[in-house]
Amino acid sequence: MRFVDKLVDKQRVSQRSYKVSHICLIFWTCLVLVGGRSLGEVNVGDMNGLFNTVSNAPYSHSGLNTGNSIMANGDSAILAVRSYKCSDGTCAASHSMLYTHGLYGEVKCEEDNASCVLDGENARRGMKVQGTGSGTLILRALTFDKGYADGGGGVYINFGVVDLKLCIFSNNRATGSSDYGGGAIFVVDLVTLNAYGTSFNGNIANSGNGDDIYNFGGTITIHNTCPSPYSSNTPIQGSALDTEGTEGGDKYSYSGCSICGAGYYSDDGCQACQQGQGSSAGSFGAGSCVDCSPGKYESSGVCSPCTGSTYTSTSGETSCASCTGGTWANTDNTGCTSDLTCAVGSGQAAAGGTCEVCPVGKYNGAEDDSQCIACPAGKFLPNTGSTAVSDCEACPVGRYSVEHAAVSECTACSPGKHNANTGATLESDCLDCSTGKYIETEAAETCVFCPTGKINPSTTGSSSASICSDCQAGEDASNGSTECANCVAGKYGPAAGLGCFDCGRGKFISTEGATSETQCSLCPIGKSSPATGLPSSCESCQLGRYAPAEGYAQCAICDPGTACEEEATEMQSCSAGSFSGAGAGTCTTCSEGTHASADESSACVTCNAGKYCPQGATEELLCPKGKYSNNGAGSCISCSAGSFSDSPDGPTECLTCDAGTFCPSEATTEEPCPAGRFSNFGAGTCTECGPAAIAPDPSSPSCLACDANQVANANRTECVCQQGFYTGLVANEATPVPKGVSPDTPGMTLQTLDLLPGHYRTNSNSTEILPCLNGFHCVGGSDPSSYCAEGYTGPLCAVCSSGYAAIGAGESLSCNQCSALSTATVALGVTLIVSLLSAVLFYRFKEKSLVRGRLQSFHSAISVASEKFAKVQSVIKIVFSYFQVVGQLGFLFGIKFPPLYSRVTSFIGGIVSLDFISFLPLGCMAPTDFYSSLLAYTALPLVLSACLIGYYVFLSKKTDEKSVSTRNKIFETFLAITFVLLPSVSIKVFSTFACHHFDDGTSFLTVDYSIDCNASTHSLYRLYSGLMVLLYPVGVPFMYWYLLWRRRHLLSCNHRMKEMEMSEDRALKSALKEREANEEKHNTLKALSFLYGSYEPKYWWFEVFETLRKLALTGFLVFLAPGTAAQVLFSLIMCIGAMRVYSVNRPFVDDFNDKFSEVAQWQLYFTLLAALAMKVNLDNENLQDRRYFDILLTLLQFVPALVLTIKKLLEARAATIQRKVGALAGHLDNVIGGEGKEEEGLELSEVEIPVTSASTRRSFTNVVSTREGRSLSKQEVELGYEAVSKHERRKGW
């Protein structure tokens, strides 16, 4: 397989990175070639020597240790057979045992069998070769084992020529990534590697790049031939190699290049040594064959020593010569000698003869020319080469040896003779058998008697039993007798030569010379004959024995449990309660503590522990509970207080009551101490625990002390925390209860924390107590599964249960149970919303001429209301903007505002944001969540806007006044929609990114706690919301700015220039007139009046600023340190900045609007300040104080603006009355004076409110009377009123 393309690319990079290495290598090679020295062969015996000999890094870098570089180029380092480890000495580096730099020569083992092991100990590679100069580095007969490195666990080669001969690579590992490999060998660049007779096994590359070899730019050849001197041998092919990038050769493991045997040497094969020479196995070259030295000779290539009287006196002999002429070989067999000195244990066989080992029977203890000495008489010597007389052994009984016999065994006495002594020296020591005896064998110690009934009366030295003669019937001969005698009384002789026999046991005979067994009589009953051959009558049976029949050899012993009187003929049984042993004459009554339960008892059995036996007892009696007995008790013992016995089988002891129990006297069981009491071991009563200690369980051995802030309950069974504490994560440690936990519940633990209503935690192990969004949603308690009120569930109880629908959100969330009424409510609400929108659109765009009948007057009323609405539009926008911000603060800051404030602001905020849908139980109609709300809030405005813009484009082709007016209304409606919906839509969009992270690792959407922020679906909606951010919070303000900026010259009307030329009031009036003129001239300009109409011409851009202010205080706050006091602080800073902009610029046309907006800013400021106080817990007062705070905060939202509005209305009313009075006075002058003209500068058409009140009549009378200088008549007044009334009706007052 060719080298992969990726390695070619790596090689190019590698070649560039090695330029510096090339230069350094060339420089070092030059130094070696010029200044090198050759030491020839260097012997290495340990790891330090190997390091200092082979490692020759010229400088210390990359953590290298610099060796002594003993080996010069061309040298041979010869390693002693052993294992070399870094743990035994110094190594080159943490990654390599040896590190050569430009070195060539040979590193080899002294034995050509790879028995020199470089053991990497699974920590570093064996060797790193960084170039070989101008020569070849040969590694021969080395084993690289357990190497460990990123590349080349055995050997790492970079540049040069390396030959591997007879090496072994085993259990090496390359640990590097895909850029590395070669468990055994890693060849990097410009390398020529040859391997001869080298084997691989157990190597691994983690990267998969060649478990055995990884070639990264060199030439590698695996030869299938043996290296010199085994070139003629054929290696054994092993398993295939696992290589990467290796080309050429047979990629197999090779071994088995044989070593030449003894008598041969290696030189292009195994060559035989010359005759007379020998060599050891594995020898190299003809010089390894050496001549056999004197005293040795060559045999089959091996030098063997001469033996006996043979010798070689010169080297190189092939055989040994024999000594002749009375000479023999000297001690090293290098020649012959006549000087005889025999070693101990040997001697001359004859005078002047050669030395020979002393034969059996002789010894020699001197080292001289003497002969061996025979053992003394009476001794023998079975071994040769003996050195002392003590080696001679005495002749055993029945044998003898004479002087100078020199025998290996003493001579045996002949049959008929015997010798009872050892060390006999003469044959006469063997004595003849006496009369009455004989012996048939030799070497006898004693002679034997003639058999019973036979005699040898006269012959001595008999060697056969035939010499003994028979006695007559009725006669016998004792041992050694020479005469026969009659059988004595008690015996009989039935035949000749048989001797006498005893009458059997149980028989007797009183006469001598009896010849028949029939002459023996049986013993009568009650008697016995215990021995054979009794001469008279039998003996009477003694006490305890009996003979129930005739012929008893011995009176039988009475069985245990029976008794026998003297001369008894039978046994008498012992009754229960008594006993007897074997051979008893009487029965014995059982003593106390023993019993015999049956007749014929051989012994009274000792009563077992737990039982008792009175005297003569026939059975064991059980001790009752509460008592006990030991073995052999005659009665039971009562258990003392503090102990008990409860065994139903007879208590054997009273057990000590365990700690935690008590036992009264004669207790039958341990009574557990009740909870709240304790006892030590052996207590008769239990003790109550102290006031600050408890015994929580029955059977308590001691009381447990309560921790600080804990006391025992009345029953002393539980340590309860003092009020305001609970047992936390650390057992028995009282921890102050956190806010939201009942301070009055005693004995709480972390798992049983009693939450106050309005609070929540994720699980029973949580220490994070969270306020619920709405206090009524959470009922509190100690069970996490029951925190939520009915209809509520989920985190913070802010999710409606199944069968309930959500109305509102956040603090104002209410979960209503679905019913038929819910469906009707949704239908009615949707109908009202659609009807309202339809009515607004209808009367917004319907022409007056198309309205007929009663709708005509209604339309007129709507028109009047529209005109009045236009005048207060700025105030309404300010109110809308204010509540669009304030209504979202609780959600944005994560603050639970007081309930009254929350309900009011949430309700108004929902109205001004047109969030009517949230007040309908849509969840009863279909499943709804934040995602559906998000889609609706972002998509419906787009659909509505598309419809309006489509209609606008349709009308844009028409230029008539009606179409232009309709287009302007369409565009104004579009802008109004964006104004109203932008904050709420923006908050919806930004809310997608606001998640509440709980301490149990869960995360839920803050605006809808049913949505998991960790779900993959939420990631998609985040992406969608990101697009909506560009469309709404970014796109709408940009659209405002672009629309206004394009027409800035028509809107600004050089207002600022005019202020420089005239007074501010005149400049403002002039600019406004010019803007009105521009609106008449440019018919589409009026469509933008919703954006600029409330502001002075020079502040044509202010609606953009106001929009950004609202967005900054609503949606953008989601990203500013959410949920922290810093977030509230940021909003305060932005509020103050906006207040400064409003107060400095005062942008509204109407001064009242400037004041009104400033009051709104101050209201917002104080509301934010209150939020900051709540965030840092400054409102942590009592309930009454919090109520006052709630009312004050609620009033703050309305009172300042309401006061300013009332003041404005009163001022407007006063001004109107004044204008009406002036107008009426002028009109009356005209009527009375008949001049037909009105007062200058005061037209009745300007009077907007009819004058009908009594106060107006009085004012009118006073003014006119003052002007005329007289009092008006009643007719004049009525006439004036009539004229005014007509004018009012004409003007529509």
From TrEMBL:
Name of the protein: EGF-like domain-containing protein
Pfam families, alphabetized: Ephrin_rec_like
Highest taxon of the lineage: Eukaryota
Keywords per UniProt: Disulfide bond, EGF-like domain, Membrane, Transmembrane, Transmembrane helix
Gene3D superfamilies registered for this protein in UniProt: Tumor Necrosis Factor Receptor, subunit A, domain 2
Domain EGF-like intervals: 763-798
SUPFAM superfamilies hit by this protein: Growth factor receptor domain
Coiled-coil regions listed: none
Lineage: Eukaryota, Sar, Stramenopiles, Ochrophyta, Bolidophyceae
Disulfide topology: 788-797
Entry's transmembrane regions: 20-40, 824-845, 934-954, 974-994, 1023-1043, 1116-1139, 1159-1176
